[in-house]
Amino acid sequence: MAAFSRAKHRWKRDNLFRVLTRNLTGKYDYDLVVIGGGSGGLACSKEAALVGQKVAVLDYVEPSVKGTKWGLGGTCVNVGCIPKKLMHQAALLGTAVKDAKKYGWQIPEPIFHDWATMAEAVQNHVRSLNWGHRVQLQDNTKSKKFLLSIALAASCMNGIGMCFGSSPCRIIVLNSSDVALECAGFLTGIGLDTTVMVRSIALRGFDQQMAVLVTDYMEAYGTKFAWKCIPKKVEKLTSGALQVTWMEINTSKEYQDTYDCILWAVGRAPETKLLGLDKLGVQINKETGKIIVRPDESTSVPNIYAFGDIAEGRPELTPTAIKAGKLLAHRLAGRSSELMNYHSVATTVFTPLEYGCVGLSEEEAEKRHGKDGIEVYHAFYKPLEFTVAERDAGQCYLKKILGLHFTGPNAGELMQGFALSLKCGATYSHLLQTVGIHPTCAEEVIKVNITKRSGLDATVTGC
Fold this sequence. Notes:
InterPro entries: FAD/NAD-bd_sf (IPR036188), FAD/NAD-binding_dom (IPR023753), FAD/NAD-linked_Rdtase_dimer_sf (IPR016156), GSHR/TRXR-like (IPR046952), Pyr_nucl-diS_OxRdtase_dimer (IPR004099), Pyr_OxRdtase_I_AS (IPR012999). The chain is an alpha+beta fold.
């Protein structure tokens, strides 16, 4: 155990951690050693300390080529969910200012966005979270013999692939994952010329009808898309601009353009090789590099556990890692036998038109039960707030299969409540028995009554 506390391991993801544990016999220094100070690792550590375990946490962020480092809290806090949502909010406020004029607000021109002000405000909030985590761990040290062994680093926001010192003008985002589209959306929203390069489909792993609605809205919003294209070469010109060469897959034609910034949104690789896990006999998926785990988060080696993004087959979501970490801490302390339930975990993509979902996609439902074995209820609706502002609501849509999918304002807030109903076993008949809150977007979910199979127009009319 002590060897692990002295080693420097590079961890860049929020939930990139492994947990090693052994009951205290006098031979070891800790009941629990957690590698990785992301959301899940911190949750597990704090919970273990609260139930009387002696804990050590190891966290280290290797500086980037430009020297970028960040503080305690992992990717979600420093360069992921939190700064992403705040910048998404900045973009939404820009749209709200435009809407405000239609509602009678007299707003003097010109209106512009100041990048430096936003960046500093977001960084200040991130730093406050870094400090809060540190204080919590120190408090636990005093009361519960919680020991912290961690390399703290300054928070910096350019983990999303660009320098926040100044606002770039033209940006190209390579890939079309949820993170890629979220970044492209808020960059467009604050007035930057943004292009997304898509190799095949957008939002792979999500319901594809919903993915099309999201990207259609983004195109109308101002984001450019280079469909069915792959990057071939990037060259830095003497002017400092980046010249990107790409190929259109269907025609093999090559194109070039210059950008101020390139955002590579092509995913992450777990850094499991650095710990020498093969020597311990820990089983790893050689293709993904992730650790293979059982339902109780245990690995192929006794007393070694893995959860969060580093575990094979687990959702790469902060809340699941936090929940799994807390449950593991209680099991290790003998306080509970409850396992993490990874089914029907809700999530939201914070694109300009938000997309929230829980349960199966239509493709997955058809695959499992056959097209004739499922019923899809759906509706196109118009949020009331879009009416006076004269905003297009053509992509505001919801459908219920063996789950729920929704595009529209505040999709995450709406989806949280319906995720609970699914956990409780709610069915379509339960929705019909529920009285809606009027006028809201959420009420459209409990009013939905038209099936795809019927072929009827699913557009909501009237109140």
